[in-house]
Amino acid sequence: MDTVNILGVQVSMLGISESADKIMQMLDEEGTHAVFTPNSEIIMNAYKDESFRALLNRADLLTADGIGLVYASRIVKKPIPERAAGFDIAMEVVRRLPQSGHSLFLFGSKPGTAERAAQILTERNPGLKIAGCRNGYFKPEETDDIIREINDSGADLVFVCLGAPAQENWIDKNRDKLNAHVLMGLGGSLDAVTGDMPRAPEWWCSHGLEWFYRLTKQPKRIFRMMALPKFGFTVLFNGHKFKQD
Ligand code: UDP
Questions:
Q1: From the CB of 108, is ligand 1 less than 6 Å away?
Q2: CA of 114 to the centre of ligand 1 (A)
Q3: What is the CA(231)–ligand 1 centre distance, in A?
Q4: pLDDT in tens, 11-58
């Protein structure tokens, strides 16, 4: 698969529809696949932390969620054609599930959100099979019960929406115990489905300003967003040191 090495992380160059194709293929393959959707902040964490970098690179697909990664790929001269946001890929996969017959488990976000998201997604995609829902607020000792619940549901695909890097750590640690074929780390996607945290309108996204829109909705994110300029400078000065395949 074609990837671009951004500060040591092998990010896929697939667009939204191609990423969805790949995930549908994984659903029919043996084993449990991990799909992460890193943005600049996550790549910056991985740059600083070797074990987190290795964890990300163990995934089967890392899509470019964020305009920062698209710019970074241009700087290292292996341009990703389009931003492939986790939310957009997830919605494209959900559109295809009624036809393929695979079932979906929604794990994460506040109590009640996954259930509301399930209802909205089934209304929008008649025939969609929801295997189960579970909120993302739990004690570490409840993890085995959650794994049992997901396995008992017979889910083929799990959206893990715990925020980064909790969801990436959870998936990496537990993937061997889960029977689903695909585990996707999707941050606040369920809140976007229910409208609790609406996505930026199209204009903001197409102008690469989704990050700014989110900042106006959640001003506390400013501290997390300080990673963005650092990411830009790091790619500019060190990006070329990473060998492209
Ligand atoms: N969340 C959760 N469990 C926690 C902390 C957070 O399920 O212990 C959920 C939270 O309710 C929200 C999502 O994780 O739905 C994080 O959303 P955010 O947009 O902040 O994701 P990120 O940008 O960190 O990927």
A1: yes
A2: 12
A3: 22
A4: 999 999 999 999 999 999 999 999 999 999 999 999 999 999 999 999
- Give the pLDDT of residue 219: 86
- Specify the residue with its C-alpha closest to ligand 1, atom 17: 188
**Burial class for 20, CB neighbours closer than 10 Å (0-12, 13-18, 19+):** buried
Q: Encode pLDDT of 144-195 as tens digits.
A: 999 999 999 999 999 999 999 999 999 999 999 999 999 999 999 999 999 9
Are 69 and 6 a contacting pair, CB within 8 Å?
yes
Domain boundaries, the chain: 3-236
Distance from Cα 162 to the centre of ligand 1, integer Å: 4
On whether the pTM is more than 0.90, the answer is: yes
